Amino acid sequence: MAGDGRGPEAHEASVRLIERVTDLCAARARTPGEDLPSYMLAAVPDLTTEELAAEMAMLTGLVGDVTATLIGNTIAEVLIGETGARDSLSSGMLQEAINRAAAANPPMANLAFRWAKADVRLGRFQIAAGDPVMVSPAAAHRDPAFAAGGGPDSIYSSRAHLAWSAGPHACLGRDLATTITTIAVERLFDRFSGLRLAVPADLLPWRSSPLIRGLRSLPVTYDPVGDPPAPQPSPAAEEAAEQEDPGEGGQNSLVRRVLRMMRLSQS
User: Fold this and answer.
1) What is the C-alpha to C-alpha distance for residues 116 and 132, in angstroms, rounded to an integer?
2) Are 55 and 40 in contact (CB under 8 A)?
3) CA nearest neighbour of 178 among 73, 266, 92
4) DSSP reduced 3-state for 97
5) Are 126 and 119 in contact (CB under 8 A)?
6) Is 220:197 a contact under the CB 8 Å cutoff?
7) Which of 15, 167, 179, 210 is deepest in the core (most CB within 10 A)?
8) Which helix (H) or strand (E) holds 188?
9) 3-state DSSP call for residue 221?
10) Which pTM does this prediction carry?
11) Distances in whole angstroms, Cα of residue 174 to Cα of each of 4, 191, 217, 229
12) What DSSP line would sit under 196-218, residue for residue?
């Protein structure tokens, strides 16, 4: 999932993935378990096997690629230290470090096409009804009107960015992706001291993709802290899961269930 999905075997691999996920979803519909497809069926019982399989197949890309890219981009922003992410992490504000990284280097540099419903003028450009438009969070975040809203030394950075899209198209997995990133980044810096880039920042190998902006690899040097500690609940991750909007209780409840499942799998 880390490639660009354009190889000669991509279609065949996609078909195999859908078939395998469909079989799994059908099995969970018959016999629920302590896993994500079972939780999704419990939350929305009228999901068909095909609908559930489509959602699960999409999650493999979102978790395996977009979330992994967010993790890598956050670590890179902390190590480069130019956007305030390092200071936020040093102050124990991990959620703030992730938000700064998402704004400075969003994993989805460009979003999927939208189509204008009516004629609209945007700056000096006229967009006609039916015209395809590709929204670019990476470009929007470099607009001086947005970038001037706060410096890297500000305590809090703006949440008014497009890394998670916005409005009806806002990413439903934002809380889950942020929670997974919180766990990964927190444990990485807990277990490895002196983590630093092994190459200059301008030599980091970035992937070429029309949508995803992420690293092919992140060469670092580090000093091991010692034996990994026994798995413990992550305070930062729990705090992220508990920060729920009263109108989105179901979504955050699912996040907490997934966290519990991840902890059990590590025991």
Assistant:
1) 7
2) yes
3) 73
4) helix
5) yes
6) yes
7) 179
8) helix 174-191
9) strand
10) 0.70
11) 22, 26, 24, 28
12) EESS-GGG--B---SSB--BS--
Are 136 and 218 a contacting pair, CB within 8 Å? no
pLDDT in tens, the chain (267 residues): 344 455 677 788 888 989 999 999 999 999 999 998 999 999 999 999 999 999 888 877 777 788 999 999 999 999 998 878 888 888 888 999 999 999 989 999 998 888 999 999 988 899 999 999 998 999 989 888 777 655 555 677 888 899 998 888 888 788 888 999 999 999 999 888 788 999 999 999 998 788 889 999 999 998 877 665 566 655 555 555 555 444 444 555 555 565 565 555 555
Distances in Å between the alpha carbon of 51 and those of 12, 33, 42, 91, 188?
20, 19, 14, 43, 36
Q: How far apart, in Å, are the Cα atoms of 94 and each of 161, 216, 239?
A: 18, 24, 11
Task: Quote the CA–CA distance of 159 and 174 in Å, as a whole number.
Answer: 12
Residue 222, CA distances (Å) to 121, 189, 191, 193, 219 in order:
51, 10, 10, 6, 10
Structure tokens at 16: 């195999």
Identify the bridge partners of residue 132 per DSSP, sorted by sequence position. Answer: 115
C-alpha–C-alpha distance, residues 45 and 29, integer Å: 9
Q: Which residues contact 149 (CB under 8 A, 6 or more apart)?
A: 158, 160
**What residue has token string 């670590």?**
75
Which residue, among 100, 110, 171, has the nearest Cα to 139 in the 3D structure?
110
Backbone dihedral angles phi then psi of residue 90, each to the nearest 5 degrees: -65, -30
In the numeric block, the tokens 């992410």 are attached to 85
Whose structure tokens read 């989805």? 108
Q: Dump the DSSP string for 10-36.
A: HHHHHHHHHHHHHHHHHHHHHS--SSH
